[in-house]
Amino acid sequence: MDVVNAFRIVAVGDSTLVIEFEERIDTAINARAIAVAETLRAESVAGIRDVVPTYRSVAVYFDPLVTDYDALMRRMAEAAARPAASSARAPSLVRVPVCYGAEFGPDLPEIARFASASEADVVDIHTRGTYRVFMLGFMPGFAYMGLVDSRIAMPRRETPRVRVPRGSVCVAGVQTSVHPVDAPSGWHLIGRTPVRPFDPARSDPFLLKPADEVQFYAIDRGEFARLDGTHPATS
Amino acid sequence: MPSVRIAKPGLLTTVQDRGRWGFQSFGVSVSGPMDAYSHRLANAIAGNGNDAAALEVTMTGPELEFEDARTVAVAGALFEVWIDDRLIAMRSAVEVVPGSILRFGRRLRGARAYVAISGGITTPVQLGSRATHVPSGMGGLGGRALKAGDRLPLGSVAGATPRSPAPHRPPLAPSQQAWALPDGHAILRVLPGPQADRFVPAAFDVLQSSPYSIAGDSNRMGYRLIGPPLEFAIRSDVISDATPAGVLQVPAAGQPILLLADRQTTGGYPKIAAVISADICVAGQLAPGDSVSFVACSQRDALAALIAQERSLMAASARR
Q1: Which of A232, B141, B147, B215 is 20 to 30 A off residue A28, Cα-Cα?
Q2: Cβ under 8 Å to A: B residues 232-261
Q3: Domain ranges of chain B
Q4: Is the ipTM of this complex over 0.90?
C-alpha cells in the first residue's frame, strides 16, 4: 500500500470514528482527507452530526442511538480506500492584503534576526509563497496554512500572548495564519490584514476553506484604512 | 414579542440549545449544554422539543421575571427554586403568570441547572444554533453570559391547549432519572484511545488508580485535572486533529484535561481515553474542587448506558 493511501480507523469514545492517514503534514495526504470528508458528507448516513477533515485525518461524529456503527465503519473504510475523486468544490485562490511590521507586526524584527535578514526580506519571503489551507480549527475561521519558507519558520513563542487582535497575520514554524477574532496566541505576529477571515453577518461567514490557496501582498497604512472590514476578491 | 427579563444573572447563565453542529471543519465549537440529559429533561417537562433553547445556570442561579403565562421546568443540579413565595419541585411542570418571579436559592447538589420555558428561548440563530459560546462570542444574547436587565425573546405557545387551572403533575421521582447527581465526586466510564499507544502501557491503569481533582481554572471548555501523572512512551505532540467532547488529552506535564462543551474543534495533545457519552452529562454536574475517578468500560456498556438514559427521557416526554 502506498504512503498516501495507508490508513486506519480508530474510535474516539462511543460517538466518533476517525480515519487516520499517515501522520505527516503533506499536501497529497491532506487532499485525500478533504476528499474523503466530502464523500462521507455526500453519502448522508443516518445520525451523522459532523464530518471534520484535518491535516491527515477525517473525524465522523455520529449519534450512537441512530447510526449503525458497523455500517458506518464499512462506509468509512470504503471511502478511505477509494481512489481520490476530484473535489466537488473548486478551491479558491484568495489574495490577502497585509500591512506588515510596526505595531501590527511586533515580532517582525525577531523573525528578521532569526532569518539573519532584513524586515523587508522577511516580508518578501512571506509574500512570495502560495499557501495551502490544510485545515481550520482553534477558533471560527482560523486556517492552518503552509508551508512557510524554512528561513522564516521560527518555532512558536515560549510564552503565548494573552490577547492577539483580530486580523493579525502570524507565523509558527512552517505554518502561517490570520487571526479571525481577538484571542490568545503563541504565534509570531508579523502584520495585520484589514479583511475579516470570519464574519458571521456575511452570507458566507468563512473567507478560507480547506484546500484553498492563499497569497499575501503588502499594503501601506492608507490602504489598510481604506480596506478595513472589506471582503477580498477570490478567483 | 413576549420575553422573559433577567432581574439577576447568577454566576454564569447562558442560552443553550443542543449545540452548533456541522461547522467544526470551520473551527466553530459545538458548545451546547454541559449536561445534555438534564437540558433535554427540562425541555421535555416544559413541553418543548429536544432542540429548544433553555438556560444553563451555573453554581449560583438567576432571578427571572415573566411577562406572560408559561410553563416552566427546572432540571439538573438540585437547587431551592422559588416562584414568588412558593418553593417549587424540580423536574416538574410549573405554570407562571405575567409578573411571576422565578428565583434560585441555595444549591444543594450538582453544579448546573437548566430552566426550560414553554415556547423556548428564541434569541437569533447563528450558524444553525442558538447555543452560546462565550470564547468566540457566538449565539445566545450577543455571544455572552446574561446580565441583569437582559430580555430574552420567547417562542409562541399558540396552538397549545391553555392549561388553567394547571393540572397537578407530581415531580419525577429520583428513581426515574437515569443517573444520580454527583455530590462532589463522580465515577466516569472511559474507553481507551485513540492515542493510548503514545503512553507507557501502565498509564491507562494509572488513570484508573486514584481520583483526580478538578482545578480552579476549569470551565465549560474543559476540566484541568490534578492527580497521578500519565507517563508518555513517545514524548511528542500529535499533528492537530479533531477533539470530541469527553476526550482526555494530556499535555507534556502528564496531567489530563477533560474536554467539554466549549472545547476547541482541534488539538495536538495526545489523547489517552474518552469519557462515554452517557457520563459526559455527569461530568457536567461537577465544579472546581470536586473530583473524578475513571473506570474502563466497553463500547457495549457505553451504548447500554446511553439507551437507559434515552428510555428515561422518553418516559418523561410521555408523561406530558
Answers
A1: A232
A2: 238-242, 244, 246-247
A3: 3-171, 185-316
A4: yes
